[in-house]
Amino acid sequence: xxxxxxxxxxxxxxxxxxxxxxxxxxxxxxxxxxxxxxxxxxxxxxxxxxxxxxxxxxxxxxxxxxxxxxxxxxxxxxxxxxxxxxxxxxxxxxxxxxxxxxxxxxxxxxxxxxxxxxxxxxxxxxxxxxxxxxxxxxxxxxxxxxxxxxxxx
Length: 153
Description:
Elements: H1 13-63, H2 68-74, H3 93-104, H4 126-132, H5 136-147
């Protein structure tokens, strides 16, 4: 009597369903990444437009200093109030730079240079944390950059 050996060929239904679930999860991940890239691109476009508009307005103000009062009147509603930085509590570098630019714009001989921690999460690794935090060397480099700044023609 001879025994028959049946070999399994092909895929079972369970294997096929598991492969389909893994493929579906991968495709959902790709779709999420695509949506994030679209959002990031749109945000970059908005930021580029804002920078271009503010640079254009700054150039107009620089070229026509006699009409600064009209610019102040025209854009008074747009500019928000900058909180006073009498103490260091709650005063960010951006607020301090805005106050300096507002109150002392005509006295500045170079652009304002901020040396702060970037707007990122502070890493756990000490070596990476040292890269993000402001150091004495970074402050000295920023001061030297401002002191040697020359207006381009």
